[in-house]
Structure to design on (907 residues):
């Protein structure tokens, strides 16, 4: 079932999207009709106007889901399951052509040569202006200026079209020819091409941790894949082409010799240390610019025009060969398309961090599969399941070991034949340590249960201790004044500010989290119970006195039930706050729980898992709240009517 | 004899802000014999409720003493039942549980208390309403529950603090008849605080008109209307010339008192 869902998620999404569109249109139609019916007798601002309107809820939910489907590319995948793979092949071509484009106006506005000339000229001017006159003699200064002029002439020679070598011209022409051939190949279409069996056997889009498989699975994809492979060779060729004008050969030799001569003078050691350092640094800065200029990467401007237009032609051919893929991409795949990495292609834009609804459900189903060995659960723990708990474990936890210590007698000693016969005291110790078999009981287990368990235990403790204290604080000056400072000093501190301290003291076990949540729940329960009890009408108290009730009876029979609405509201608030605090605490430290899953998912950038945990937490929080609302409705029907 | 006796009751409140002492009650002396029905009337602030609270045991007098049947009143007790203006019912309990509250507090046998509850609900005209939540009852019915809750404990004195003040005119009249019936049937001593002159005249076998600053009994009447109310329709009594005469006299009296307060203020 889970597998079937996983494999057919695209088809399911297609059906769901159609259904959602139908719901959207239908609910909108119903809503309009209702509005037309009631518009006349409704007054703006009347709260009654907000009553009902379930069809607008349907409309809203459908809109939300459709937006989710759209921006996560779920809609695109549903109807064009091969589109991403084709986009991936196009991305391959883009990737290999990018080094060529980077040197041309088509990719970066200016020729790379233009940028190099601009940068090196600026730097040469700067170096010339900074010549340290106190470190060099007048002769040396003249020579250095001449040297800089020579370095500058390298640039001049390289930029002159007359100096472009025949070899370089030939290579560039060859490049243009090859690029044009690729354009022709793209325009020829993919009629005779077909994907390989290996490519077709790849996992479907999004069904594994590999987002989009890299081998082409359509004829069009194969075409782009082929062209990309050839274009890679062309690109390699391009980056190797150099422009070494013959006039530069003698200049380079000359400059090298002069720089060496300057360095040699420096090494004799006839200058003081500071001067030597200044001279060396200056020579080095000149040499650095020179090194950049002798590698032949500057071409005359118009020499690359041919390559530039060939690349433009290739882009046009690419768009032609893409056909409707371009339209599909711009309509159904918002964002920056697909980018190819080494082993897979990845979605860019909203789809990158917004997982598809169906993928989220698939991940949730995988997590909730209790079969750990079958790939279910998370980190070896199911999401929500049950297990057998040995009763002895609980007994060992609850019964302290000193029970055995205070039993009269001594623990057994080994006999002369090296055997040990346990006596009753030993057996008692084993019992207290839980090392006996007392049967097993089924208990709930899993990340979800761990989280819920922590909240429930902390909440239970908070209610059990907080409500009585709050009730007494509401009716007794001593209790109010004695405990008020204590509670009011710790309560305003945000629970998360306590978390580092408490988690450091208690470690990553349940105790710390439960204690932290207890602190949260306790304060809320005390305050709500106190508000409730201090709000008891005096006449009710007097009436109960007149009816012969003792103080304790009044506490139990009048003040407590009177405070019940506030107490239950307090519980409802406490659950919400505890739930929020718990997740944060689990993110800080822990080995189980929903927050723990989210934290691990964060460290590996698993967006789907993060969203699954977010949705789980939202739904559980909503469930808690609905339960409490139901409880409140059932237990205190008199609220607001007394 | 279970007479209610007040001897030289004084009550002074001290304002914690300026230390000013307000004499809420000064030298109250009266004896209410068993089975008498006393209504207390007066302008607001004359100490009616303070007097009632002292007899109920919620307040201790500054000096003087109140006693019931020779026992000094030192705190609230079952022998002095209270009925409040708003009923002061326990809205989390159904009618029957409200009525048997006092019985449950002294651990009466449930079967016995159920019988008592049914009997009293019958008497106040609420048969069959035992399981109804009190918040679903109308104001008049809530006041009937409060009466039953008080009477089920068989108190010697019933103290009512403006018990019918929050009811509409029609319900009020019905409840006045009910009070008179209960008075006749049970023979209880009843003390009713009210701010309605008509009600005080109709219900009061004896009537105190109190005056403020200091709170004191200004004038006492012995009236025939309560006795008559047991036999005649209350509306007829209200038409009576004698009734109108006393009503006008008391109204003028209270009006003058109010004028005096305003003048002084």
């Amino acid at each position: 079932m889970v597998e079937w869902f996983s494999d057919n998620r695209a088809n399911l999404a297609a059906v769901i999207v159609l259904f959602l569109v139908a719901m959207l249109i239908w609910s909108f139609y119903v809503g309009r009709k209702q509005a037309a019916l009631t518009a006349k007798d409704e007054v703006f601002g009347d709260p009654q106007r907000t009553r009902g309107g379930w069809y607008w809820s349907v409309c809203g939910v459908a809109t939300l889901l459709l937006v989710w489907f759209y921006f996560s590319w779920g809609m695109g995948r549903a109807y064009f399951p091969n589109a991403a793979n084709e986009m991936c092949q196009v991305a391959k071509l883009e990737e290999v052509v990018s080094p060529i484009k980077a040197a041309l106006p088509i990719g970066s506005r200016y020729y790379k040569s233009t940028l190099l000339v601009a940068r090196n000229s600026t730097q040469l001017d700067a170096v010339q202006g900074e010549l340290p006159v106190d470190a060099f003699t007048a002769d040396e200064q003249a020579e250095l200026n001449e040297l800089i002029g020579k370095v500058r002439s390298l640039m001049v020679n390289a930029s002159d079209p007359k100096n472009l070598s025949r070899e370089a011209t030939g290579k560039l022409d060859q490049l243009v020819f090859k690029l044009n051939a690729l354009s022709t190949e793209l325009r020829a279409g993919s009629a005779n091409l077909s994907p390989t069996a290996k490519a077709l056997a790849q996992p479907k889009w999004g069904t594994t941790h590999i987002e989009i498989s890299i081998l082409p699975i359509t004829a069009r994809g194969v075409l782009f894949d082929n062209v990309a492979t050839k274009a890679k060779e062309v690109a390699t060729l391009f980056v190797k082409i150099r422009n070494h004008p013959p006039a530069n050969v003698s200049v380079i030799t000359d400059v090298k010799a002069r720089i060496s001569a300057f360095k040699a003078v420096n090494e004799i050691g006839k200058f003081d240390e500071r001067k030597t350092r200044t001279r060396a640094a200056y020579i080095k800065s000149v040499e650095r610019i020179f090194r950049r200029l002798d590698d032949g990467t500057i071409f005359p401007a118009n020499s690359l025009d041919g390559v530039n237009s060939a690349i433009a032609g290739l882009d046009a051919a690419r768009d032609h060969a893409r056909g409707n893929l371009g339209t599909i991409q711009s309509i159904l795949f918002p964002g920056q398309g697909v980018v190819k990495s080494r082993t897979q292609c990845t979605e860019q834009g909203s789809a990158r961090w917004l997982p598809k609804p169906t993928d989220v459900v698939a991940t949730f189903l995988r997590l909730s599969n209790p079969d750990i060995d079958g790939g279910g659960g998370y980190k070896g723990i199911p999401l929500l399941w049950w297990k057998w708990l040995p009763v002895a474990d609980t007994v060992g936890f609850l019964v302290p070991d000193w029970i055995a210590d205070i039993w009269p007698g001594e623990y057994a000693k080994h006999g002369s034949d090296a055997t040990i016969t346990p006596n009753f005291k030993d057996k008692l110790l084993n019992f207290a340590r839980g090392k006996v078999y007392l049967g097993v009981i089924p208990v709930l287990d899993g990340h979800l249960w761990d989280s819920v368990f922590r909240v429930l235990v902390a909440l239970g403790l908070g209610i059990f201790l907080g409500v009585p204290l709050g009730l007494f604080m509401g009716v007794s000056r001593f209790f109010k004044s004695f405990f008020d400072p204590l509670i009011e000093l710790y309560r305003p501190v945000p629970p998360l500010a306590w978390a580092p301290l408490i988690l450091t003291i208690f470690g990553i076990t349940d105790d710390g989290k439960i204690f932290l949540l207890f602190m949260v729940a306790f304060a809320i329960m005390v305050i709500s119970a106190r508000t409730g009890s201090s709000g008891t009408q005096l006449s009710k108290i007097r009436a109960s006195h007149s009816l012969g009730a003792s103080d304790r009876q009044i506490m139990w029979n009048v003040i407590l039930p009177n405070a019940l609405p506030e107490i239950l509201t307090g519980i409802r608030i406490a659950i919400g706050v505890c739930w929020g605090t718990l997740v944060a605490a689990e993110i800080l430290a822990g080995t189980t729980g929903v927050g723990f899953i989210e934290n691990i998912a964060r460290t590996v950038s698993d967006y789907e898992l993060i969203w699954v945990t977010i949705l789980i937490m939202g739904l559980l929080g909503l469930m808690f709240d609905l339960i409490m609302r139901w409880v409140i409705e059932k237990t205190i029907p008199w609220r607001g009517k007394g | 004899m279970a007479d209610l006796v007040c001897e030289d009751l004084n009550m002074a409140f001290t304002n914690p802000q300026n230390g000013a002492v307000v004499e809420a009650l000064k030298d109250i002396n009266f004896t209410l014999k068993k089975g008498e029905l006393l209504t207390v009337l007066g302008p607001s602030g004359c100490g009616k409720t303070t007097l009632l609270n002292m007899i109920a045991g919620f307040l201790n007098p500054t000096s003087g003493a109140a006693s019931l049947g020779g026992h000094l009143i030192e705190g609230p007790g079952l022998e002095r039942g209270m009925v409040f203006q708003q009923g002061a019912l326990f809205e989390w309990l159904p009618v029957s549980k409200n009525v048997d509250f006092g019985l449950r507090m002294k651990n009466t046998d449930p079967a016995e208390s159920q019988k008592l509850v049914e009997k009293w609900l019958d008497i106040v005209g609420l048969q069959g309403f035992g399981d109804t939540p009190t918040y679903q009852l109308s104001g008049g019915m809530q006041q009937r529950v409060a009466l039953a809750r008080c009477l089920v404990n068989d108190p010697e004195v019933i103290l009512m603090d403006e018990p019918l003040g929050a009811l509409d005119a029609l319900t009020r009249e019905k409840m006045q008849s009910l009070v008179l019936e209960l008075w006749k049937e049970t023979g209880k001593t009843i003390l009713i605080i009210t701010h309605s002159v008509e009600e005080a005249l109709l219900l009061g076998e004896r009537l105190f008109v109190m005056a403020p600053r200091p709170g004191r009994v200004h004038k006492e009447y012995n009236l025939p209307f309560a006795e008559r109310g047991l036999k005649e329709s209350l509306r007829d009594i209200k038409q009576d010339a004698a009734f109108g005469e006393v009503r006008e006299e008391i109204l003028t009296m209270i009006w003058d008192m109010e004028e005096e307060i305003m003048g002084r203020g």
Summary: Chain B touches chain A through 29 residues (CB under 8 Å). The beta strands of chain B are 4-14, 21-32, 37-41, 63-68, 71-72, 80-83, 157-161, 189-193, 206-211, 216-222. The first strand of chain B starts at residue 4 and ends at 14.
